[in-house]
Each structure stands twice: as C-alpha cells, then as structure tokens.
Amino acid sequence: MQLTYRGQSYAVSFPQALPTRKLSTQLTYRGIHYTAATLEQGQPPMAELTYRGVHYTR
Known about the structure:
By secondary structure, the chain is mostly beta strands.
C-alpha cells in the first residue's frame, strides 16, 4: 500500500498472521474443576523500522 505523509511517499506492507497454538489449562473455582482453552502466540518476527531516517529493529 502506498501512503503519503507531509509530501513524503512510502510503501507499507502488513505482516502475516502469527502462528498460534491452543492451550488447555485445568482450573478450580469453588471446588469445581474445569478446563479453560487459551491461544498462545509465538514471538513476532523482528521488524526493521525507520524513524526520521534512522534504522532500528524491534
């Protein structure tokens, strides 16, 4: 996607979805046991960023 800010044009690409995996956790509330499912996300890939012409990674 091509964007413009204060006369400067730049291209933007959106990252792909992060891989997730489903985790189940055994919980107890007032003596009743149940299983809760949550999604765990992996580490996002390192991004190469630029701010006012200075390159850095996150």
